[in-house]
Amino acid sequence: MTFAIRAEIMPAWGKDFVLSNEQIGLIAGTAFWGFTLAQIIGGPLIDVLGMKKILYIAFFGHIAGVILTITSVTFWPLFLGTLLIGIANGSVEAACNPLVATIYSTQKTKMLNRFHMWFPGGIVIGGLIGFAMMEQLHLPWQWLMGVLIVPTVIYGALFFTMEFPKTERAASGVSYGDMLKACIGPLFIFMVLCMMLTAASELGTGQWINALLGQVGVPAILLLVFINGIMALGRLFAGPVVHRLNPAGMLVLSAIFATVGLFWLSHASGYVTFAAAFVFAIGVCYFWPTMLGFVSEYIPKTGAIGLNIMGGAGMLSVAIILPFMGGWYDNNKAKALQAGADAAAAELQAGRDTLTTVMIMPVILIVAFGALYFSFRNKAKVELTQTQPA
């Protein structure tokens, strides 16, 4: 929900705080820096502190971040509030990815897809609420931000009454040293690099969607809701797809669909944009959870740290790409205006040119995942030997 709500209110921040798109990109990007920080620090601490304490950090980070954002009157409090929300989001993932892999150790890719169904699911909920509150009721953006307190209180109440298991790595007797050694292997490093490209392709586009597709003739926030609705359904029913294709095969097809979808989005207008968005959604749908599933199934000794390095790398790449995308958009718009386009036409062209640049990333992934598929199409997933807990 934070992702959709931030995408909805970013234009209002620009007006209220007199910010350029590059500055807005820096603020939005800090949410992903915070996410990365939480994953990189929280990953090694999962086995020390336990999953529950990491979720305490998430809870208080969400509460403090929302309050600070609502009360902001200048750039820096807004920046810090967004950072705290990012840390909270990263803490949720730092704890819950290894939790899901531990509980569902025999069907990791399927269940990680189902768990991550609620990332796009939350975007659908947040996007619809944002559209209703800001574009229909014309309420202040602070009211929309305050909505986030509700799910925060709910998950806090649910989690803090639960007992949590040990991670799969700890329960299987894999030493901490073996886990660290697995995290510097060539296959894992390859997957980290690919994760950076998949996350930037998916989340960078989604976070900037209001600007990139704001002039195509349909409400951009509804396009975001549509894309994430398709993603949620795809992840919910990921099981049969995993069974037929295996994780590497899923990633190849995902990269192809993402490339075609971005190309089509860079040329579409009107309601045809929804068709292009459908193709893009099919492409990015399985990226994040399947990358985690592949690592958990084929390099399981990387454990909680491995999953959190993957998530942290993904969010780091989004933090890096967001201000670049803002800068590309501003430069492309300036070029269009210099060529004689009016403001609306310049924004339309700027969005299309920026999407064309972003498309380079999934093109690279087609080659990378193709090589991965031919290397692993006949290899079975690796099972951790159940021994005495470490």
Tell me what you see in this structure.
This protein is mainly alpha-helical. Helix 11 (186-207) runs antiparallel to helix 19 (360-376). The protein has helices at 2-17, 21-49, 51-70, 75-103, 108-116, 118-136, 141-146, 149-159, 168-171, 176-182, 186-207, 209-212, 220-236, 238-265, 272-285, 287-298, 303-338, 343-358, 360-376. It is built from 19 helices and no strands. The protein has one domain (2-375): MFS general substrate transporter like domains (Growth Hormone, Chain: A). The protein is globular. Helix content is 81%, strand content 0%. The longest helix is centred in the last third of the chain and has 36 residues, at 303-338.
Summarize the structure.
The chain has 390 residues and is mainly α. The chain has helices spanning 2-17, 21-49, 51-70, 75-103, 108-116, 118-136, 141-146, 149-159, 168-171, 176-182, 186-207, 209-212, 220-236, 238-265, 272-285, 287-298, 303-338, 343-358, 360-376.
Key features of this structure:
390 residues; mainly alpha; Growth Hormone, Chain: A; 19 helices; 81% helix; globular
Describe the protein's topology:
Elements: H1 2-17, H2 21-49, H3 51-70, H4 75-103, H5 108-116, H6 118-136, H7 141-146, H8 149-159, H9 168-171, H10 176-182, H11 186-207, H12 209-212, H13 220-236, H14 238-265, H15 272-285, H16 287-298, H17 303-338, H18 343-358, H19 360-376
